[in-house]
Design a protein that fits this description.
Mean pLDDT: 82
Helix content: 25-40%
Largest sheet: 12 strands, mixed
Number of helices: 22
Structural class: alpha+beta
Distance between the termini: 34 Å
Strand content: 25-35%
Strand order of the largest sheet: 10-1-2-4-3-7-8-11-12-13-14-28
CATH topology of the largest domain: Rossmann fold
CATH class of the largest domain: Alpha Beta
CATH superfamily of the largest domain: Alpha/Beta hydrolase fold, catalytic domain
Low-confidence stretches: 1-39, 235-276, 407-411, 618-638
Amino acid sequence: MPRIPLPRTRGARFTALAAVVVVVAAAVVVWTTSGSPPSAVRTQDAVLELPAAPGSADKVRIDTTTYLPEKTPAPAVLLAHGFGGDKSSVDPQARELAGRGFVVLTWSARGFGRSTGKIGLNDPNAEVADASRLVDHLAASKDVLTDGKGDPKVAVTGASYGGALSLLLAGTDKRIDAVAPVITYNDLAQGLVPNAAAAQAPAAGTPAAGEFAPGGVFKKTWAGIFFSAGSGAPSGGSPSAEAPEAGQETNDSGTTAGGSGTAPQAAAPTAGGQASQLPAADPCGRFTAEVCQAYTELATTGKAGPQTVALLRRVSPASVTSKITAPTLLVQGESDTLFGLDQSDATARQISAAGGKVKTIWYTGGHDGGTPGPQLRTKIGDFLWHSLTGEGSDPGTGFSYDVQGTLRANGTPSVRTVNADAYPGLTGQGTERRQVALTGPVQSAVRPAGANPAAVSGIPGLNGLAGSSSRLAPLFSTDPAGQAAQFSTAPFGSQLLVAGSSTVHLRVAADPAHPLPEAVLFAKLYDVGTDGARVLPANAVAPFRVGGLPADGTPVDVTVTLPGIVRPIEAGHSLRLVVGTTDQSYSVPGQPGVFRIGLAPGSALAVPVVPGVSVGTPAPAGQLIGIGATLLVAVAALAFAALRRRRSHDVDPELAHTPLVISGLRKQYAGGFVAVKDLSFRVEPGQVLGLLGPNGAGKTTTLRMLMGLITPTEGEIRVFGHRITPGAPVLSRIGSFVEGSGFLPHLSGRTNLELYWAATGRPAEKAHFAEALEIAGLGDAVDRRVKNYSQGMRQRLAIAQAMLGLPELMVLDEPTNGLDPPQIHQMREVLQRYAATGRTVVVSSHLLAEVEQTCSHVVVMHRGTLVASGEVGELAAASGEATFRVGDPAAAAAALKAFDGVTDVAVEGELVHANLDGLPRAEAVAALVRAGVAVEQAGPRRRLEDTFLQLVGENS
């Protein structure tokens, strides 16, 4: 099973954690500008005291900054920050908007920065009410244009948390003249606890309509990131820290005019160097008690009760979108596992139904994929300016989406934009959906106890890295063997551009032998290339819960809406639907179970297609040279790929029947360390070869090169004449057992093997289950649960798994680890029986005696080089020791000790062993006869250990 390599040192873990924090912070705060701030922008800092609640005498202090353009009065923009940030988070964009001529008001929301109060997740009576008071503040400013008394010309924008605030304010305060939310949510209940299944497909004709069904699956990783961001100290210091007084003005450098510009001082320490008072710890952090209670329920039960659902919906834009009539620009990310395209789709439908004017843009970024670039920021600014002043071209109600290509210029992928006249389904004709046939039988999928190991669909905040590297992508999407059902389409004859959410009809049933009343499942749609490599677009996964499963195994029909994506499926590629039982980013029931998953009769994959006019993204002039260089690099890469393909098909016909030939192998790592040098040996059919050597000898490096996991610096490896390269087709003829196989303990050995083979995608008739099980010698135990197996039985089951398909060459690393002597004896018989079929086994082991008894041949390595190879018997006899079977062992020992140079004389029953140190064995026999000792037999003492120690030294 593929595993994600985790950092092993404290420093590496810290670095990885820091990377996650930085990426997530960049995703959830808001977009920034790379340009220099206009020098004419002035700022005014002020602290406003606002009611803590409607009708309350208590106050909260809201820290604000107003950015003033060169010319006033001017239209205003309220710019809200993202979760975990504060007003400083949006400073670059505020300056950019002010440079365009807007008065921009930013503030730190309750519980963030230097503002006081508790975080209520955009509570209409708290954060939204505060924003409405900020509109009052703008209306009273001489620098802001107005539509009338108390009614400023004002728009509101923000990303993520700030985007939701924008919509909530536009739905509650009629003075808002335009709204432009970015990468935000419609319904926080569905955003954090999604359920993508329903009895039938969504009726909406829009391209990314999600199924907002109740009883969803908790998105624990993303929710945990946000709860953590609100649990500690505020980002700008203590909420009670003193902020600048109202009316203080700063210049463009940010220092207070007429003041020092320094931050408030921290509380003075006591004489002992400790703070005078340690703050009381609070598991709720800066959240309100209501929000904390909701999170606690979700985190501990994985489900949202009625009170939690009511809270999440009350603080969601969905509660007010039916009241929004102001012009709206919805900007949503195509790479966003937090708030997907379905959230923007729902908002567009609701505002349009209320009579609002909606324009929608999907761009390549999102919480996982990055912030809006300068061109998109310009579009947002143009929309706000026209909406507030009437100047410029009308942005209209069109729809555009970005399609990311594979060609990169200076590390940036090529992007083209598809423009449509309108967002499909809001008015007129709905979205076209291509019916694509899926094939695959009903399959069993296991949920292991504790839902561990779990599938990996992505790592929140870091998924963008997967899209930037074909090597990283497999680490971000793995499906453990036996935990998923898979269904595939035929290869496409021409490109299919998926733009939105596909749907599929499934049948789900409980296994009668393991009945459970409900199933929590995860649907994913992979793009599978011509070489079999698969990519999970946008790392998108659709969690869904199916309740009411009959105990007798009767299936329940559901329609699953897959996540919204934009992905060109190239000619020759196919789509693969994977429906799994676990996902590490979600809260999954820990009770083990088995579910039967199949396609409903006549089911097809309904794929949304949105036609339009494609426009390439223009590159700045300075990038043209970079694009040319990229083209040259692409040509070189294609040439290199062609060379690799040619090398992977490099065949020596004279070696077609030879399992393994290693010639002149060398592996040198960065820094000059040489792990393997000038290694050459050959393995013939039917041999059991033992690869011996002390730690650091280069055995593991050699096996990794043999399996195509790393590339030799020099030399080559040929398996049945085929040169080994990463991904070489001949690797399918090799079976391997390198680490623990992770069997599912509550299932039988046979079922584990069947699930493993099914995960390979190869036909069942080619598995040769019976032969592998017979060789492994498990007998009736193969039908017992693995949790009742002894360690030896588990090891034999692992060997049987490696034998599935009866590979012609089997490579095993320490197969007897952890076994007692009887179990080692059984394992020895398993390997010898397998080799007796004419196949070949290579065993790496540190147990010299075991190799001597198991293997027919041996290769000894030391410090990366070969020091000896040959038959085990020949090497064992090369130590210089001899054994004599005699009638009088005591007299024989005394006679041998009389010779100069003869050492290590030992008596073992009728046998006498001695190191002759070059003395011919015949002379030793003659001396024994002259001493009156009857010699029945004489020969070399065959001990591999002695030879090994002579070859590599006792201190190696």
